[in-house]
Fold each of these.
Amino acid sequence: MRELDVVLLRYLAQDFDGAPDAERAAFDTLLSLQDPDILDLLTGRVIADDADLRHVLKRLHANPRSADL
């Protein structure tokens, strides 16, 4: 999905390099999921069990552009 690419690439460009190792690993985990699963997590239809993944999702939501989802 193009919309997901925009949100995920923005995080990668702006936040990934400065993120702690646990956050980087959680982002890698997020990227390993299928697009529908990522969308469910980003829209709140599914809540991540992993605290680090929830933190990454919060960071993605904090970006004003991710509100487009």
Amino acid sequence: MQVFKAFIISARKFFPVNLMYFVIFCVIAFAASSSSTDSEQSSFRTVSLEIGFMDQDGTSASRALCDYLKTLHTLTPLAYDEEALLDGLFYRTIDYILILPDGFEARLLSGTDENLYETVQIPGVYSSAFIDEQIDSFLKAAKLCLAGGLSPKDAFSRTSSALAESANQVQIMEFDDDSQTDSAMTAIFYFYQFLAYVIISIILTGLTPILSIFQEENLAKRTSCSSMSLFQRNLQLAFGSIFYCLAAWLLFIITSGIFYGEAIFSEKGLLCIVNSFLLLPLGVSISLIIACFAPSGNIITMINNIVTLGMSFLCGIFIPQQMLGESVLAFSKYLPLYWYVKNNDLISGFGSEPFTWPAYWKHLGILMFYGIAIFTVALVVSKYKSSRKRA
């Protein structure tokens, strides 16, 4: 096993670079997990905003609207001072300004929707639309009460109390087990999405230089002069490559288990693991093709960046496939990582295609086909290079 031992010794040389990839990826994965957990915990939560209002009408309708908004937000009466109002919005002491002009109730009773109220908002802040929707809900409910025959005073009073009561009855339901599982699964999907870039980078960075060493002409001649056959040499190199790739892959699987616990062993988690396993023959096949030309270390790094970054951007690892143009997707379908990401989106439900077992196995089959095809090309190139050297 002299070749295998030499392979392991050579692999130690590239351990610091691979460790750097691993640490950076783990930090990013942990940060993404925390971010997704925080965003899920903060979802569907009502936000109380600072609203400044000017009631110039002073009628039962304007007071009822203000009473309703007070149950949801913090209302502060304001004097009409344009400079002071703009300063409040600029320094974010006020999120929204509501002006109820004189004649607000009269217009509402007449059934008109024009010039009922005025607002001053911060451009680009989506919470303002939330307040607009609440005001529109009040106005629509008030019109229904008026149409039902209630007097204006009773209609506005009942509208305010009914909407306020319904708002207070809304509760945030917490499903501890399900929410934790969903949060963990979301983090797992992102973990395995970016794993494609990292694991192929590690294989190309660490495995290609080792295989290139054994492709050097002087070393190949010395090996051929020994008692070791070419088959034994290639078999030991194959064992070394398998050991190297499996060790790197298992390290990431164990890391995902540490990060996400039992969720990684759920059905969807196991599907992600199986999907990621097919990255190994793909990475090895690409490494074999590059190693046939015995490039230097700098060239290997350049090729690694072109191959991994290029496929990552084109296939949807860094940018979701839904955001890519049709021409880009049409081209990326000829790249293997497109089908890996397609399967990951299929499992996670992030893509447009619903999960079905035939679709999952189809994408796995295509990914496996790419690995076999590229490996066949690598053997052909290696055979051609060997025949050229003998000639």
Amino acid sequence: MPDNAGRYDIAVIGGGAAGMMAGITALERGRSAVIIEKNGKLGKKLFLTGKGRCNLTNACPEDELRRHIVSNEKFMYSSLKRFSNTDVMDFFRESGLKIKTERGGRVFPESDHSSDVIRVLEKRLRAGGADIRLNTRAVKLLTENGKCVGVTVSGEDGKEYDISTESVIVATGGLSYPSTGSTGDGYRFAADQGISVGELSPSLVPLEIKGDICRRLQGLSLKNVRIAVKDGNKTIFHSKDTGEMLFTHFGVSGPLILTASSEIPPEAYRRDLKLYIDLKPALGVEELDQRVQRDFREAMNREYRNSLSKLLPSSLIPVMVEVTRTDPDKKVNSVTKEERSRLVNSLKAFELEIKGTRGFEEAVITKGGISVKETDPKTLGSKKVGGLYFAGEVLDVDAHTGGFNLQIAWSTGYAAGSFA
């Protein structure tokens, strides 16, 4: 065994949000810990979150926070009680990081630099005496008599060696942003131990749309709109609040779309999925019809295609004219009630056919993961293998955008580090 192999109380595989929090928590309980990170620095994915600003958590009340957890919310109850969003904010303040709360309860470092968050976490790890091994890849878990007793790793020189431990915490992330090292190692470690891993799919991800409408509208950003996603006659998602979205060459993106993607079951993409955009959410159908009639009266001698400038962005007008199947050169005073009704309905429910999602390269998180039925919700320990714990995105838990997924990482990391 090489000199640098060593023996520790705990090995943490993954130096991201959950892994660093797990390591800090274990160290501050008097345990020795080694952090195994395949990248050349800690927190590579954390560096990118919130467009580089790092949306740490959300300051909303606890019951509201739990409602933003899409998959296996009940599993998170114990972890969130043990280390809540308030605890997270206190943790960073006490560590010397100034934080601020913005619209929607989103919490950021005051500096708007995710690097400051990573610096605080690394400082706490080093202060606790962590052995941080960068450019070191976990190869496999070591088990004896149904208990995890260490991990085989590969160092910078490519040589493999074993690290002996009392416990191992797997915090390897999911499959999203594979360039940051999230390549599914944790799922493989779990599967090798006979632990179930659910179907994996991209989430908080842009949607691809059939046809060429989105390509024609590429670059158009819509604000203060609502959206709904329907699977046949069943509504899968309906945005409660208005928000922003963006048309791209492949489909649609933006905060509203990412949130919607987290609510769509992976199997639904194999069916007839439709996206509906309410372009005028502040007006009911009758109110909007009256508004359209008023606009038409003011432009009664204009052609239909030249009468919509007060209702729509210029790039959307030719598309709307096509969608409403009305002669673009028809004088507005000749537009029939039926044609006007088609316009009003299209303004309230602009329809697009969903083809699927973009890939893991563009997904913020991974939906699916290690079975929560086979993981103790209090300790985050495996029910099948002793001394083996899981934390963060590797688990089958995911949430909306807005700091909620990082809260899951902090809470599960804290729980795993406390009990490992």
Amino acid sequence: MNEKPIIGITTGDLNGIGMELIIKTFSDGRMLDLCTPVVFASNKLINYYRKIVADHPLNFSSTKDLTRLNPKQLNVFTCWEEEVPIQPGALTESGGKYGIRSLMVAAQCLKDGQLDAVVTAPIHKSNSQTPDFPYTGHTPFFKEKFGAKDAIMLLYSNELRVALATEHIPLAAVAAHISKELLISKLAILRETLIKDFGIDKPKIAVLGLNPHAGDEGQIGTEEQTVIRPLVEQMQQQGHVVHGPFSADAFFARHSYQHFDAVLAMYHDQGLIPFKTIAQGEGVNYTAGLSVVRTSPDHGTAFDIAGKNLADPSSFREAIFQAIDLLRQRAQYAENTANPIRRGRIEKEKEGETEKIAES
């Protein structure tokens, strides 16, 4: 990894809050001490939103060559030259089309090794899904783009990590998707990312049930008895620290998540409603299971406040921080595991620290 990583940034929907977040974040010069940011957009788009958030003055450099970046300014990699109508707060075809162009160019540059990581601003499914972009969101796009067998949508903050077994599918279809094969794949990715990306040697994972009260022993659904619990028991027999299935409402109400390194929720709202309530706007969305690092804020396009200089950059700024931290953690893990002697020494040191704590 570069000492000062090059972070690619996508615009998101042109009419959402993405550009406001980007400008507010990098108007703070201290961010440029941490990374070299590259926004995939156009000069006209940047200038349009600079006027809206004029209380956050920003200088930028325009380029079409990623080998010639200005490390002391926000860099704008020109993705289009044509005039594009900008209508903050409006759901338009062009807003989605050019947001996807920004994403596609950034992802290709990441794949070509010209970027160290990518942070994506929010897109809207209504105007982003087309024959050229047939994805329900960023996660399946990056999964296919980078040839991953599977990937996980993982949201996390200082308080909590929540991964999703299923993502953007209708609630009526969730039960049919919950299978032993799916959960094995998701738990394997989650466990690996906790070890490699978060430095947790023996991760503790909680698995939520699908039905109310985790099925009440089969009285309110049988998925817990037929799929989830047998799988949890199988993983325990293999030496993994996995527990469940837990009733989702009691699990979060009793703060049981504080005893685990991560939680696997069965569907989107089961995990994201409590997560966003607890994270309070400072969470990050991370696509786990890829060979590359991609993060994003934990919110959407926010058309209702777009263009009004009201957008809070906290989650977006945290997504930048976390992209940098994930790169460093991966580099550290690779270094440790590449040298078995050093790895053994580190493990012995940890064992010694554990023994001291136990003796005290």
